[in-house]
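Escalated from tier 1: flavin-adenine dinucleotide holo job.
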Amino acid sequence: MSRENLHDTVLETAARKDGDLNQRVVEIGRRIFELSDRYQPRVWQKAWWLERTTRMMDGDPRLRTRAFQFVDCLPALRTNSDIARHLREYLDPHFVELPRGAYALIGDGFLHGARDEVIGLLTRRGARGMAGRFITGFDTPSVVRTLRRLRSCGMAFTLDVLGEFTTSYAQADRYVHSYHDLIDRLTPITRSWSFVPGIDRDDRGPMPRLNLSIKLTSLDPHFDSIDPDRSIREVSRRLRPLLLHARQAGAFVNIDMESSKYHDLTLELFKRVLSEPEFRDWPDVGIVLQAYMKKGEAALADLLAWAEGRGTRFAVRLVKGAYWDAETAAAVRNNHEPPVWTQKWETDACYERMARAMLEHARLIRPAFASHNVRSLAVVCAVAEGLDLPAGAYEVQMLYGMGDPLKHAMVEMGRCVRVYCPYGDLMPGMGYLIRRLLENTSNEGFLKQSFEDRSGRDSLLADPASVRPPSAPLPARRYSNTCPEGPMPAFRNATNTSFASADNRRKMIGAIQYVRGEMGRKYPLIINGHPVSTDNWFVSHNPSNPGESVGQIALATPADADQAVAAACKAFHSWRLTRAKERAALLRKLADRLGMRRFELAATMILEVGKPWREADADVSEAIDHCRYYAEQIEWIESRPRRRNMPGEDNLLSYGPKGVCAVISPWAFPLAILTGMTTAPLAAGNTVVIKPARQASVLAAKFVEIIHDLGFPPGVVNFLPGDGDVVGTHLVEHGEVHVVAFTGSAAVGTQVIQCGAQVRPGQGFIKKMIVEMGGKNAIIVDDDADLDAAVSAIIESAFAFAGQKCSSCSRVIALDAVHDGLANRLKEAVESVVLGPAEEPSTTVGPVIDAEARDRINRYVETGRHEGRLLVQARLPAHCDRGYFAAPVVFTDVDPAARIAQEEIFGPVVAMLREESFERALEIANGTRYALTGGVFSRSPDHIDQARRGFAVGNLYINRRITGSQVDAQPFGGFKLSGTGVKAGSPDYLLHFMDARCITENTLRSGLVPNEREHLETT
Ligand SMILES: Cc1cc2nc3c(=O)[nH]c(=O)nc-3n(C[C@H](O)[C@H](O)[C@H](O)COP(=O)(O)OP(=O)(O)OC[C@H]3O[C@@H](n4cnc5c(N)ncnc54)[C@H](O)[C@@H]3O)c2cc1C
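Tier 2 regenerated the structure:
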């Protein structure tokens, strides 16, 4: 059967309606309910109490959130007093309401030391009980006990070693090792068990007793669809030996499905590895498909077609999907369509269509149905019956600790029930535990509904496609991207390119080739709308391969600068009078054009400044955002002048442009910052002379080219590439430049301010200086922090774009209790970063900008060797020899006053400091001349609150990376020596490029006070 035919069959199946089916589904469903009622937990059983406790929180969403957050941080708390303190913080009466008695028990006060011990002990015990409900065991003996118990009830199992995502190769190795170890230990044990017919044999023969489930994100820290070949190669390196080991031991291995960004890659890897000769005829493997994915059915059709070609059956486990909340929230945040259905009935209906298609193709695959939903399971049974499939032709799977009565009912009905049994440390298993708690308490979850309302069971058995109840509100409303109190409505940021799409990857590769093809190009100055060639030209090099010239750029002189300023002055007279709507329309066109050329612009950035793919793409998105944001803002400002009218007197506050703005932009965000610094003054009605960073001149030239193609009037934007200390200084000093917008180092920035402050002969105004400078940004890691999350955020914040962002992290301040653990993980993670030329999609750390930067960074590394202890320095691969590479490095035992802890290095160098208390860590974090970005990893509400109040930075990030701010959502900019306190991408940014005017008119004429409305109508 061809792929297309199979696809058609699945779709036809989806459309088909079986008249009697629903009747039969209801009968089977009632039977399942009836049988499961016999197994409902009783009041004297632990399960009854645990269910009541979790459901108690349902009426109070805040309590539920706080309780789950507390559970999330529990494994990280070391002492009983830590637990008691956190409990008090999470249950703070400002946030949740508990009975008075509860506060008397947990509150501070008399004998609180002794009480804390008791609280700690009881909480630990309660948490272990809760964890023990969903987690099979913490070691092999406890797991084996559970598995035996399950078998005695006629249930099979699949074991999952807790853990998802890894930050290092070493962590991935440990994870794989635990699976090898599990196979070694459990094979002899499971072989010794006596035969249980329903679960050790299916309709075709014996089934492996040892059954494992595995998550691919745990096998490689860079499992990422941006470079599928590399990801598949690296993951397979660990997966293949594991599969071989399992095969030799007669075990079964199932590959779990994780969030949507891994969906296609997981399927691709599964197909590639299992097509290899040594696995092609192996039936004891399986994969998961998720019915909540909109493309679930297409994925199934594709898998069935592949199964036919492979010729050996394998298992397919159909689930609904465990990441619904995270998927929908991410979609709203990133402004894209959710990949999952947004109505519960849609997922349920899709599950039923896919289940039918799987059963109809049981000759190609062994179907397994994972659900705790009686309707979904009844449909599976009814469809199988209609197809004359024996009960052993498919499996029913459920999670350990969920829907136990259902499991017993299905066993009684002769189905093979397999229980998904997670095992291992609680710390890496927290994500799993929280997902289960969410599922158990979700209002839309079947389990909760069937538990709460027994009388409504028939409606729970109704066909979801015909009932179509309005389930949850759309995620756009449930997780809304709003700005309730802001001066302007919330802004919709541009969407970054998804490199999970093969088409987008092809486009980026094509764009890199295209840009490479035009490398010999020359870029003249642009003054008054005309290209101007000069006597001297300079070359812009590819820092990944400096032998490669990205383009030649004309070098401007002070005389050119004079001409550019004169042109800008002349153009100002008409541009300032152009209506705000027209200026905004041009900026929106600019945004569209940047969007149309996004791959080419990103590719130019990759080759000219060495930004890796995703960073370059995000830079273009931010540039687009600036255009649209300032367009919206100027319309807002112009349409809402502030009137403060009184009887007989009208007052009007409005804003107008200042004049010529010199834009001196950096290479670190070569398009985003350049665009922001240019479009803000343009929107406000100023004209502009751009002096881009030399290293990013080709990109700037393309940007100006686009502006001119769009029809901005001549002279409104002039382009003056050249030397900062010649042309830049000349512009700053120029008597007809009204505003200087500068982004760069503190050393140059302070000089710019000094220079610009002088009033030159003939200059009849004070220059406005908008200066953004560097940072010495710190991340504090508290003693209750999630270290895995902290490590990945530190790696990204410190080493993305080789640490060359003004927001990059260059200090990590760790609390004593976590310092060594964090240092170990950080070391392993740094050893795992992928260094390479920026154009390689899997590169996470590219080159630094030029030889001068590399040498300066290397000098700091030498200083670091004296000022601290070298924790780790990444190894530079051989293919980095040609470029300007600086290997990421971390020093520990650094004194807060050391140079590497105080000076801005602008490279991948991190100083790690140890502190005893959070208060002291905050003091150290604030103890530099800078105040740009900062981060805190903590799960203590009180410490987070302290940081909010006391961490003196322009952008504070809590429990996330400290780079990657978005226009409007995180207006960017700092104070102290980090900047003049101006926030780019904020609702008040444009006002810095404008002068405010207040007009007061006395409207009283000989005692006549005009009606306010009449007067407004005439003004
Ligand atoms: C043995 C086993 C293995 C599993 N393996 C995986 C796996 O590899 N990958 C994975 O992702 N999950 C896996 N799961 C988890 C599984 O996805 C959830 O347990 C399951 O979604 C719960 O569905 P249900 O049919 O039991 O309950 P129901 O209550 O009927 O369905 C709940 C599900 O509906 C979906 N949903 C909820 N609200 C909405 C809405 N508003 N719009 C659209 N859809 C909505 C969500 O998927 C939610 O989980 C596994 C589960 C089991 C039992």
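The two ends are 76 Å apart (CA to CA).
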